[in-house]
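Example 9 (inverse folding). The structure is encoded as follows.
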């Protein structure tokens, strides 16, 4: 998963974000009790991406699922399933506590200012069925979503960058310059 998160970080940075991967949120014991997980380890955010111009911090789950059926709307929408997964999207109380602590810690660290807007999001490498319902679900909530089509499009564009010592750009250049053309 590390490399997929790094790919997402790289593509977000190309879009003007400052990004970091594998960020742990330092919830207090009281905050853990508030979310119903008094003994859980610190939650880990796959990718944090801050856009200074827009003063937005994306809090992103990254799921490749390339060799699985993929992510489906019913996995994420709390109206369909009330399981443990995708808590960032399905549990408003969890999201509120997590975001409050995350913002406080990052302000104390000097990484963001106190007026930043935190937006949950997901990047998925494979979707079960059609991406459109997921895109619509996230768009209706003002949340961030990149599905496989967007990832392929963004990665393919890196093939036209000038020289850079980056494995993602090398792979894109090899594919594009040898005849691969994405559908989108």
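The amino acid assigned to each position is listed next.
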């Amino acid at each position: 998963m590390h490399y997929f998160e790094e790919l997402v970080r790289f593509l977000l940075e190309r879009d003007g974000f400052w990004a970091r991967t594998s960020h742990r949120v330092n919830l207090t014991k009281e905050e853990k009790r508030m979310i119903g997980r008094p003994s859980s380890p610190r939650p880990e955010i796959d990718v944090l991406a801050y856009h200074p111009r827009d003063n937005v911090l994306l809090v992103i789950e990254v799921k490749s699922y390339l060799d699985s059926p993929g992510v489906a709307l019913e996995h994420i929408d709390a109206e369909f399933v009330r399981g443990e997964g995708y808590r960032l999207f399905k549990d408003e109380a969890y999201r509120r506590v997590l975001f409050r602590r995350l913002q406080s810690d990052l302000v104390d660290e000097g990484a963001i200012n106190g007026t930043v807007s935190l937006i949950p999001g997901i990047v998925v490498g494979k979707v079960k069925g059609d991406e459109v319902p997921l895109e619509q679900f996230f768009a209706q909530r003002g949340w961030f979503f990149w599905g496989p089509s967007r990832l392929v499009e963004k990665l393919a564009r890196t093939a036209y960058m000038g020289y850079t010592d980056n494995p993602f750009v090398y792979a894109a250049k090899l594919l594009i310059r040898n005849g691969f053309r994405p559908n989108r």
